[in-house]
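PROTEIN DESIGN WORKSHEET
SECTION A - STRUCTURE
LENGTH: 276
TOKENS:
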């Protein structure tokens, strides 16, 4: 297991388990600790690598301006660990980075699993408006405004109503935590969000050659099931799974189901001889 990396330009990362290598990539305003239940379940049969992107909590340095830049950062972690080919799994922002990596470096991707993602955000759509609102909230907080506004926008969009109803204090506590973050944190969060504007992965998806899986969430308000269907349609031969009763933060709301879906996909690939 490894913790914080000594090199200032290397993403903070952690390694658990042994076996075929699997890289888990975070959502935009997430840290790799949120993967814990999924990672530990998968580490029983795989070498599971997690990392925080530049600008996230455990890699607090200036992030690159593009998804391609984040993909290159991830490659540097794999090179550092001596991992030539890996299974890739990412959620939301991490799914988009995983697509870029698999499209630009097909020799490094054994497979691709995309959770709570989309193939594109249409200008003028509800998703586009939500992204613009999040970026504006970050700008205002970076200038000394109420940082809790970011959570006001993000929380109800990210989590399903049922999950929140079972945790009545969750959003209030998270709002307090986010509101207490310094202005510099919001400036960096803004940079992460700006890497998604605009988002159109259709050309990248057409370049992916490895086996692929798309996992959507039934109650995802950010990228509803039709977005998952479009994402799967853009990948040759992709398998599509929809997790019933979960929202956009499906890896947090339903970690056991996500782990089972990923494990089943990876086990099938092993039977088919897909390995490092």
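SECTION B - SEQUENCE
RESIDUE ASSIGNMENT:
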């Amino acid at each position: 297991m490894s913790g914080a990396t000594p090199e200032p330009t290397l993403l903070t990362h952690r390694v658990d388990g042994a076996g075929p290598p699997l890289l888990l990539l975070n959502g935009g305003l997430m840290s790799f600790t949120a993967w814990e239940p999924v990672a530990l379940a998968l580490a029983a049969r795989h070498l599971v690598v997690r990392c925080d992107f530049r600008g996230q909590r455990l890699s607090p340095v200036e992030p690159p301006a593009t998804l391609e830049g984040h993909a290159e950062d991830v490659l540097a972690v794999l090179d550092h660990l001596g991992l030539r080919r890996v299974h890739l799994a990412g959620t939301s922002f991490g799914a988009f980075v995983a697509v870029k990596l698999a499209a630009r470096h097909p020799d490094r991707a054994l497979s691709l699993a995309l959770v709570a993602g989309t193939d594109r955000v249409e200008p003028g759509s509800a998703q586009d408006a939500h992204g613009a609102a999040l970026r504006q909230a970050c700008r205002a907080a970076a200038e000394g405004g109420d940082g809790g506004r970011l959570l006001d926008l993000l929380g109800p969009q990210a989590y399903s109503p049922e999950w929140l109803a079972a945790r009545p204090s969750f959003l209030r506590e998270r709002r307090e935590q986010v509101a207490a973050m310094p202005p510099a944190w919001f400036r960096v969060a803004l940079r992460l969000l700006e890497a998604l504007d605009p988002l159109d992965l259709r050309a990248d998806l057409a370049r992916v050659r490895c086996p692929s899986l798309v996992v959507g969430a039934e109650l995802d308000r950010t990228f509803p099931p039709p977005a998952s269907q479009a994402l799967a349609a853009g990948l040759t031969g992709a398998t599509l799974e929809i997790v019933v009763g979960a929202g956009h933060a499906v890896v947090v709301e339903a970690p056991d189901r996500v782990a089972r879906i990923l494990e089943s996909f990876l086990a099938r690939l092993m039977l088919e001889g897909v390995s490092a």
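SECTION C - NOTES
Strands lie at 13-16, 21-25, 47-51, 86-91, 109-115, 212-217, 239-243.
The radius of gyration is 17 Å.
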